[in-house]
Specification:
Order of helices and strands: EHEHEHEHHEHEHEHHHEH
Number of helices: 11
Largest sheet: 4 strands, parallel
Distance between the termini: 44 Å
Shape: globular
Radius of gyration: 19 Å
Helix content: 40-55%
Oligomer: single chain
Structural class: alpha/beta
Strand content: 15-25%
Strand order of the largest sheet: 2-1-3-4
Length: 273
Amino acid sequence: MDQPKNYFHLHLISDSTGETLMAAGRAASAQFQDAQVLEHVYPLIRNRKQLGAVLDAIDGAPGIVLYTIVDQDLSSMIDTRCREMGVPSVSVLEPIMTVFQSYLGAPSRRRVGAQHVMNAEYFRRIDALNYTMDHDDGQIITDYEEADVVLVGISRTSKTPTSIYLANRGVKTANFPIVPGNPLPPALDQARKPLIVGLIASTERIAQVRQNRMLGNAQGYNSEIYTDRATIAEELKHARSLCLRRNWPMIDVTRKSIEETAAAILALRGKAR
């Protein structure tokens, strides 16, 4: 009888597209046949605010952290936070660059994305990633018609990591938080081009992830309200009602990995065309 596989989270943080990390992570995980990897890719991470959001997400789903970040301040931030969370972190390129520097007798230029060939596919993905980072969590709410996909949902339904995962595959993805009492922006209600999808989850799952975030010292949240199950249930009820009134499809992410959620969204997008 086959033994059940163990699952683990593999977090890949890159200041470029993440291709190098994905190749390295998959090559290593392929050597462990009894362990099923749940891959989370965070590309174009180039400042402390972006990195802080990524580290909060890792705190909610601890696992192995691999990164290719040439900025030494950001690298130190990753190592420090990972030590505090008790998760292993490895700079994939740093040992290799050290050998190169020693052999060549010259320091690295530490230029982000120096390995990429500038072709149409590359620019399409970068364009999607830039759009997605600009439109994360409702930061820009005026040009949703340019998006391929817009994700809506209450806090901690994996909107940001799912958006970044899709963008890394060339899909322009915006996301907007559903908060009871806060109306949707008119540009979102009027958008016709993008596929708009609601992300939901069970009350227990949301409460668990939010509690993990509070333990990670998240700022700006009332912990009692933020993690209260009755409040979360009302938030989810409001989100479902909002999506039903607009005929927006919904995906329950309770037991789905980011990859599974993204695959379901792409399938919906294919049907909508």
